[in-house]
Specification:
The chain has helices at about 15-25, 40-45, 70-80, 95-100, 105-110, 150-160, 170-195, 200-205, 210-215, 220-230, 235-255, 260-275, 300-310, 340-350; strands at about 10, 30-35, 50, 60-65, 85-90, 115, 140, 165-170, 285-295, 315-320, 330-335, 355. With about 350 residues, the chain is of the alpha/beta class. Helix 11 (about 235-255) crosses helix 12 (about 260-275). It is globular. It starts with 7 loop residues before the first strand and ends with a strand.
């Protein structure tokens, strides 16, 4: 396996760029930081993500982590100004590749390999960065037809160093994949969240974990998402057209009491959620939710986790729905289905209030 060799330059010290810098520094790799915002560079440096690049520095790998509208310019500059391998972490791969190929010679283009970590947050900027941001997350590597094997190896080494799970796709297939798994879900969340604006207060008072789960990602930066959607318009609009047809069918099924059609749509939703890879990429292991009331006091959640550990049951996921009327949170513990009843019985014997 190729090992990552420094220095590594990171162009753009936002959430992703700074997180990559932190991960590289944790493994002893020298990191050079550059950004149009000197304040971002100072912040990222202060967090330990690297140091400001100087004119004398010669990076061996350049990682471009800038907004989509500026990505091609930054990659072209990196290919032209250095002899380093160059990658980017943008969420669209086909259009930037076309723009880059139009502006650089084939020999320079061969040093470029696109990539895209499927990790992020509704928060942005270097202060939102984390060394562990990419742990266990998929990271697409998207070489083009003339990418040098050495360049692909350098990017693969970066992905492994950051603790991510590499997946190799061609740029066009990548863009179709993220339209389905990222861009369409985001737009669905935006549409649902938009229906909450201006809603009566008494309606919003009934908000539960379901609406929070569906709308959480809608809080992401609108300007950034406009750039992403514009760059992947063809793939996104194809899926939106399919969704529109399905929505029309759903409207008719509800309005005209077409129960067989409605049942098929609901069952398709269940099947879709079951097809999403779970922990360690395993979509097949059945899970079950156990609901426990947790007082809103310091140490109570830690006590619940400690009791689950003493019982010998691994918590696969956790969600908390706060009761707006009482100092209590309803905590959902997702566990292996075969251990759910054991967990319920054991927690109840320890004085916890569960909801069966």
């Amino acid at each position: 396996m190729t090992e990552l060799a420094g220095p590594v330059e990171i162009v753009g010290t936002g959430l992703l760029g700074t997180s990559i810098g932190l991960a590289c520094r944790a493994h002893g790799i020298e990191v050079l930081l550059s950004d149009l915002s000197a304040e971002h560079v100072r912040t990222a440096s202060g967090l330990g993500a690297g140091r400001a690049k100087t004119a004398q520095d010669r990076p061996r790998l350049v990682i471009v982590a800038v907004p989509p509208d500026h990505l091609a310019d930054a990659v072209v500059a990196a290919l032209s100004d250095t002899d380093a391998f160059v990658t980017d972490v943008g969420s669209i791969k086909s259009r930037p590749l076309e723009q880059i190929a139009e502006r650089v010679e084939p020999a320079l283009l061969a040093r470029y390999v696109g990539s895209h970590p499927m990790a992020g947050s509704e928060r942005s900027g270097p202060l939102a960065a984390s060394t562990a941001l990419f742990d266990g997350r998929p990271w697409a590597i998207t070489p083009h037809a003339t990418s040098l094997p050495e360049a692909v190896g350098a990017v693969s080494a970066l992905v492994n160093l950051c603790g991510a799970v590499p997946t190799t796709l061609n740029p066009a297939e990548h863009d179709r994949a993220v339209a389905r798994t990222s861009h369409l879900p985001h737009l669905a969340a935006v549409l649902v969240a938009g229906r909450l604006t201006g809603a009566p207060v008494e309606h919003l008072a009934l908000s539960g974990q379901g609406v929070r789960d569906v709308t959480r990602i809608a809080a992401s930066d609108p300007q950034m998402w406009q750039q992403i959607l514009n760059a992947n318009a063809a793939a996104v609009t194809d899926l939106l057209g399919e969704l529109r047809e399905r929505l029309d069918t759903l409207i008719d099924a509800v309005r005209f009491d077409q129960r067989d059609v409605l049942s098929e749509i609901l069952r398709a939703g269940v099947a879709g959620t079951e097809s999403i890879p779970g922990k360690h990429g395993d979509p097949g292991r059945p899970m079950r939710s156990v609901f426990v009331s947790v007082p809103d006091h310091p140490g109570e959640l830690a006590r619940l986790f400690g009791d689950a550990g003493d019982i010998g049951i691994n918590i696969e996921d956790v969600r908390i729905d706060h009761d707006p009327g009482r100092p209590v949170g309803l905590t959902e513990l997702v566990v292996d289905e075969t251990r759910a009843d054991d967990l319920l019985n054991s927690l109840e014997s320890r004085g916890w209030t569960t909801h069966r």
